[in-house]
Amino acid sequence: MYTKYSIEEIKEKLKNCLSYERYIHSLGTMEKAMELAERFGLDVEKAQVAGLLHDCAKCISNEELEAYSHAFDESEKMSCKTWHAPVGEIIARRDYGVTDDEILSSIRWHTIGKVGMSDFEKVIFLADKIENRTREPEFREKIEKALNKHNSLDHAMFKSFKITIKSLVKRKLPICFQTIEVYNDLLTKIL
Predict the structure, then answer these.
(1) DSSP calls for 89-121
(2) How confident is the model at residue 158, as a pLDDT?
(3) Residue 96: which of 108, 84, 88 has the closest Cα?
(4) For the residues 174-185, what does the mean pLDDT come to?
(5) 7-135: which CATH architecture?
């Protein structure tokens, strides 16, 4: 058991704090995380908990999230869209009783990633991007194609970062320094 609550209890708590669409996304991420964990020989029960809780702080306003800015990586301060991840780690520990470091770390890094992610962290990161309940097929299918072609988490991660960086540049949005570092690290791994 990785949390003091059952999966059904976590679902009930999330239903009460997330928007309907975010809750459905969380269910999709949980399902995809379990599928990927099984495929890559990882702990499916841990993936279930991490996938379900990865966006547990998405219901918190930016003003409230900012109160946790001490937990942000310097580059995360550039965009409020990433703030829910470090706060999610805190919420998962405090409000859901999660004690497993790998689950907490996967929640923490599911938005911008980090150099040296474990396979478990990569599974949660990717599950968030390619769950099929709410993610756009065009985006999802490109990442899944890389995953299936190479049967490689790193190839799928690289494809995800490549798409994300292109999108940020196109929309003239800031790119976290860490995102560039992860992209470069993955590039050297897959070449």
Answers:
(1) HHHHHHHH----HHHHHHHHTTTT--TT--HHH
(2) 98
(3) 88
(4) 93
(5) Orthogonal Bundle (1.10)
Q: What is the DSSP string of 135-162?
A: S-HHHHHHHHHHHHHHT-HHHHHHHHHH
Question: Average of pLDDT values for 104-112?
Answer: 97
Instruction: Compute the distance between CA of residue 191 and CA of residue 177 in angstroms, rounded to an integer.
Output: 22
pTM as predicted = 0.96
First-to-last CA distance in the chain?
39
Residue with tokens 């993610």: 135
Contacts of 150 (CB under 8 A, 6+ apart): 156, 190
Domain extents in the chain: 7-135
Q: Cα dist. 24→18, 20, 54, 55 in Å?
A: 9, 6, 12, 11
Interacting residues of 55 by C-beta distance below 8 A, sequence separation 6+: 18, 22, 25, 26, 29, 84, 88, 128
